[in-house]
Each structure stands twice: as structure tokens, then as C-alpha cells.
Amino acid sequence: MKHHHIFAAAALSLGAILPASAQACSVVSDYRVPTNLELVGQSELILRARVVGETTGEDQWERGLLVEPVEALKGEMPSGTIEISGSGLVPSQDERGFGLLSNPYELEGAHPLSYIGGCIRYMFPEGTTALFFLERRDGDWAPAGDAFSRWAEDVIRDDAPWMKLTRFYANVLESDPTERKALLEAERDRLRAREDDPVAALMASDIERQLAGPNEEWNTIMRRAIDGEGEIPPGAESEAAASAVADLIMDSEQAEVMEEECAISVEGDTMTCEMPIEGEAEIMEEEALLACELSADGQSVDCGGGVEYFRPQNIEDAGS
Questions:
Q1: pTM above 0.90, yes or no
Q2: What CA–CA distance (Å, rounded) separates 139 from 120?
Q3: Which residues of the chain are in CATH 2.40.50.120 domains?
Q4: What are residue 92's DSSP bridge partners?
Q5: What gap in Å lies between CA 167 and CA 320, rounded to an integer?
Q6: Architecture of the CATH domain 36-212
Q7: Half-sphere exposure at residue 95, Cβ-oriented, CA atoms within 13 angstroms
Q8: What does the pLDDT profile of the chain (320 residues) look like in tens digits?
Q9: I need a labelling partner for 218 at 20 to 30 A (CA). Which of 80, 90, 148, 228 fits?
Q10: For residues 313 and 316, what is the distance between their CA atoms, to the nearest angstrom?
């Protein structure tokens, strides 16, 4: 395996082996992913529905996902097919695997597509049944969840864990606010008592997360993960890898970029750059997102093809 210090040539090699269409997703500094309980609360309509098609417009983003209602867990049941703006079907030739269905036992992280492009899942395989969390926006149905939320997860069965939890959270939020904590604790304890049921344990863990909420700021969580000081959020492995590649690029190239693109004022108290330094990091995130894996200690990124990137201080120990 080749081990590279990250210079411009390494960036070119990434561009050659990684998909150019991959995109990273970034959020404002204080953004927090809504907890599942918060997501239920901020939704006007929670609908289990079957994906039956899409509408398209002149622009590739002017499209809508057509879904056939099966059951409304919150809100009024629509009388017929509805359109969800901003979403659509996976490509007919799905070479990238965008049609992957949600893991029925993942109750914390969002669908993998949530961690690229627009920060939320926006493509669905025709025929799947999913649980959609929706709100009215300019008269249209749109995702109620923000970035990295579980606004649309596949639920093939009516008794799927995600369906059960959503029904429970909806009932909790209909109760007196002073009683909600006790209701959550009682259901958590009831599920924990089923020691021979691993699914019940997963559901109990999710209820515990609601009791502990709200979530920490996303960028703080990701920074710890990239620095090897915390766990990567479920489902965000590729996003962490992309950010790590960007950091590695910046570690070795920042001085060179500043020398070439920036000028220090005569007084020495300001610096003006023709191009934002962060731009290079963002480019690397876009190129690296779906192909690199961050090591457990946060010190290297494996981008496949026999190429591995190390933080600069570890190069001497990496070997060749």
C-alpha cells in the first residue's frame, strides 16, 4: 500500500479514483440534528406510504415524489396520492446503489443518502414503502426534518421497530407535558425487562436518547470523531472520512496556499486571500465522500486503490 503525505499531487490522485459526482454536506455551526421525539413533534403529517412515481420539471431539482398513503400515524389521512416536493426516484440505472433500503434495526442514524448532497434523503426506489415525516411548505408537502434527520425511512412491515416507536412518541406528545418523562421512562424500562429480545433493547436505547436530548451540535460531534476523540454518528462514516481528507489536505497545504493566494497588510494585522482556504477542503470533501474510510483512531483515511492518507505527524511511522 502507498502512503502519502498530502500535497497537490495527492489531490489529483483522489480526483482520478473517486466519483466526481459525490457531494459533501455541511451545516451551520450550531445546528443540532432533531431527536426522533422532536421530529415527531415538528411534523404536521406522519404518513406510511408506498412510492409510486415522480413528477419532473425543466430543472433536475424541480421534481416531486408521488406516494400512495397507507396509514397516517399523525395528522389527517390524505384521500389519495400526494406529491412530496424536492424528492424523486432513484435513477433507472442505479450503478451507485442509491436504491439501498433503510436498515430496519437502525433507529438513530438516517438513511445513508442523508449524508451526501442535500443533507437529507431525496431519492427512493419505486415500490418501496416508507414512513414520511411531512410539513406544509408554500402549499406543498415537504420534509419536516432538517439535515441528517430520519424524515423518510423504509418500513416494509407495519410492526417494524421504527413504526412502533413513532406511534409511541406521537402518543407521548399528545399527553400532558408534565407526564411525558414518566411515560418515556416506563416504556424504556418495560422494553429493557425483555432481556431475551434484542429488538426491544434497541428500542429502549432510542427512548433513552429522547430522555437525554436534545442532541449535541453536529459539528462538535463530527470534530471529535475526526480527531479520534469520539464516535462517528451512525450512518455518517463517509461524511467523517470526507472531512478528514479535507483536514489532511489543509494540514499540509495551508501554508503553501496562503503563500500563493494571500497577502498580509502593511500593518501586519489583516490578511486578504483571493480564494478562501476552506474552498480546497470543500472540494476534497465532495470528491472523497463515498470512497474513503476514516480509521478508528482518526489518524488516517483509506481511499481504496491501495492509497492511504496519514496525518502529517504520522508519516515517518507509516512506512512505505
A1: no
A2: 20
A3: 36-212
A4: none
A5: 55
A6: Beta Barrel (2.40)
A7: 3
A8: 333 322 222 222 222 222 323 345 678 889 999 999 999 999 999 999 999 999 988 776 689 999 999 999 999 999 999 999 999 999 888 777 788 899 999 999 999 888 876 789 999 999 999 999 999 999 999 999 989 999 999 998 999 999 999 999 999 999 999 999 999 999 999 999 999 999 999 999 999 999 998 999 988 888 888 777 888 777 777 666 666 655 655 554 444 544 455 555 555 545 454 444 344 444 444 444 434 556 666 556 555 544 454 554 443 444 44
A9: 90
A10: 7
- Which amino acid, 135? E
What CA–CA distances, in Å, run from 135 to 45, 146, 298, 314, 316? 6, 11, 38, 49, 54
Residues 265, 245: Cα–Cα separation, whole Å: 31
Q: Is 217 left (phi over 0), alpha (psi -120 to 50) or beta?
A: beta
Q: How far apart are CA 285 and CA 71, in angstroms?
A: 39
The grid cell for 285 is: 470533501
